[in-house]
Each structure stands twice: as structure tokens, then as C-alpha cells.
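Propose amino acids for all 133 sites.
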């Protein structure tokens, strides 16, 4: 499963004084996309952490194309960029209900052992799920 989509409405509290989604909310939208991408694979982020693996973001880039506003229905498309190693990379498209691209983004996350906080390889159970797709 290389791609997953999640749609939701922009909440009023996510907008700024200009009535558009505050730029700092887009990383949260990307997190929602990643978590649901994993869930669609049959893996919960909570279970990953309970099994000793966490995924901190080590790099984030966003290109803002058009504003989203309160009550817009937006879709976050999350794609795995390549096969994970000690890192996992995602690409995102945030689209309007009309399909217009509102933002393009990429994140780079590291697999870390929760007890040592040191880098580790992608867990075998995640690699297995990816091979099944």
C-alpha cells in the first residue's frame, strides 16, 4: 500500500485572523495522514511505540499553493516515498474538495528504539506488511 487518503473538514480553530488555515496546522494534517496510512496497513502507531519503536520527524518541507478556509473539506494524500531503512519518507498532497492542490509536502522520520533513543532499522513486521502490498 503505497498511498492512503484521509478527508476531513477544516475547523474554525485551525484558521488565523485572515480566515485561512494557519500554516502551522499542516504538519498536524500530515501526521494524521501518516497515522492513518499505518493503520490502513494494519499497524497502529501506539502498538509500534509499545513494541519499542518511535518515529520522530527529522525533516519537514511544505510548499503552500492555495489557502484552505474554515469548513473546507480537504483530503490529505499520503504516499510512501521509498522502501524504509532506518528512515521512512513520505510525500503528501493536501487537496481541496475540487481536487486543487493546496499544499505539497515531504517528511523524513527516523526509526528510534524507545528505550535507548538510538536509530534502529525499520521493524520487520512493517517490512512484511509492505511486501504484502
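Proposal:
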Amino acid at each position: 500500500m503505497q498511498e492512503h487518503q484521509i478527508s476531513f473538514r477544516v475547523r474554525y480553530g485551525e484558521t488565523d485572523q485572515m480566515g485561512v488555515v494557519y500554516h502551522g496546522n499542516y504538519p498536524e494534517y500530515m501526521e494524521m495522514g501518516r497515522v492513518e496510512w499505518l493503520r490502513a496497513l494494519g499497524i497502529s502507531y501506539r502498538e509500534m511505540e509499545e513494541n519499542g519503536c518511535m518515529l520522530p520527524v527529522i525533516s519537514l518541507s511544505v510548499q503552500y499553493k492555495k489557502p484552505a478556509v474554515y469548513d473546507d473539506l480537504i483530503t490529505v494524500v499520503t504516499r510512501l516515498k521509498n522502501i524504509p531503512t532506518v528512515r521512512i519518507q513520505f510525500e503528501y498532497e493536501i487537496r481541496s474538495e475540487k481536487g486543487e492542490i493546496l499544499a505539497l509536502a515531504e517528511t523524513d522520520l527516523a526509526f528510534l528504539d524507545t528505550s535507548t533513543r538510538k536509530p534502529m532499522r525499520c521493524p520487520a513486521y512493517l517490512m512484511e506488511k509492505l511486501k504484502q502490498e
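The chain has one domain: 3-132. Strands lie at 3-9, 53-54, 57-64, 73-80, 87-95, 101-110, 112-113.
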